[in-house]
TrEMBL record:
Chief location of this protein within or outside the cell: cytoplasm
Any one annotated GO CC term: cytoplasm
HAMAP family the record matches: Gluconeogen_factor
Source species, domain of life: Bacteria
Cytoplasm listed as a keyword: yes
GO BP term, example: regulation of cell shape
Keywords assigned by UniProt, alphabetized: Cytoplasm
GO-annotated molecular function: LPPG:FO 2-phospho-L-lactate transferase activity
Pfam families reported for this sequence: CofD (PF01933)
Cross-referenced SUPFAM superfamilies: CofD-like
Subcellular localization, as worded in the UniProt entry: Cytoplasm
Protein name per the record: Putative gluconeogenesis factor
Length: 310
């Protein structure tokens, strides 16, 4: 813990492994972290449970809970239980136990937020995990292909399309927001976007109208963490393109900081210009994992975020 007393209030938006790393870094800084997690996953265990039970896809929410889990034998054991995946020749193959637990708790309580809070108490998490919307969403993307624009549907397909993605949308286009998420944004000192899958984990938060309105109205400072390497969604996007894409999807939402690894192989002048257009300054710090340069190091990211917060 740093010297911030009870801790700065932070809202982190994203999903998957990117959000996991951000939350792992924030857990070292403050107990007042709220994760707002994408709910558009339609692949793997989450997709199967979503289709069978018509529930929020639990996978990214499970990972966020695990990331905020406090140290200690009890907590870390339950984290491992949540992350355990079955391996078999039957119908349970590939399911994460935590996904099944969340599905059961939601069915029992009839309230996803209460269910997440209950599992959070089981793990003694530092903070809170909330869904981006109250219902499961679908992602649509317009991609440029063979000199024409084609629309593809589904998080799994968009995430693996390896194409020039021009625009993304969510279906339904005006889903009900979670009131607790709106309240957390209103009370936040900082809002953190990314890192993570750009068009399927980060940008979708800007497409929920009530969520976007809360982000624009919030007095919190806003930071965007740039990915370390391109993925299937962003092979054609530079670091500055990420900032411009953010602005295109949310032109009224200003940024304060764009955080990037100090050794990034980019056009720094272009990034500074794009960031300035969004109202932000570029902060370059060592945040890459030395053993895996494609991933952020939670300790280094924590140090960089602590510097920003102070």
């Amino acid at each position: 813990m740093n010297d911030m007393g009870d801790g700065v209030k932070v809202v982190a938006l994203g999903g998957g492994h990117g959000l996991y790393t951000t939350l792992s870094a924030l857990r070292l800084l403050t107990p007042n972290t709220t994760a707002i997690v994408t709910v558009a996953d339609d692949g793997g265990s989450s997709g199967r449970l979503r289709e069978e039970f018509d529930i929020l896809p639990p996978g990214d929410l499970r990972m966020a809970l695990s990331a905020l889990c406090d140290d200690g034998e009890w907590n870390l054991t339950w984290r491992d239980v949540l992350q355990y995946r079955f391996k078999s020749d039957g119908v349970l193959n590939g399911h994460a136990l935590g996904n099944l637990l969340l599905a059961g708790v939601w069915d029992l309580l009839g309230d996803p937020v209460r269910g997440l809070d209950l599992v959070g108490r089981l793990l003694h998490i530092s903070g809170r995990v909330l869904p981006m919307a109250a219902i499961p969403l679908q992602i649509e993307a317009d991609i440029a292909e063979d000199a024409r624009i084609r629309t593809i549907t589904g998080q799994a397909e968009v995430a693996t399309c390896n194409a020039d993605i021009r625009q993304v949308r969510i279906v339904p286009e005006n889903p009900p927001a979670v009131c607790e998420a709106i309240e957390a944004i209103g009370e936040a000192d900082w809002v953190i976007f990314g890192p993570g899958s750009w068009f399927t984990s980060v940008i979708p938060h800007l497409l929920v109208p009530e969520l976007l309105e809360a982000l624009i109205a919030s007095k919190a400072r806003r930071a965007l963490i740039i990915n370390l390497v391109p993925d299937n969604e962003t092979r054609r996007l530079s670091a500055s393109d990420h900032v411009r894409s953010f602005q295109e999807h949310a032109p009224d939402l200003r940024l304060d900081t764009v955080l990037i690894d100090v050794d990034a192989d980019i056009n720094w002048d272009n990034l500074r210009h794009a960031s300035a257009s969004a109202g932000a300054q570029v902060v370059a710090r060592p945040v890459a994992d030395k053993s895996d340069p494609a991933r952020h190091d939670a300790q280094l990211l924590s140090a960089a975020l602590s510097e920003l917060f102070n």
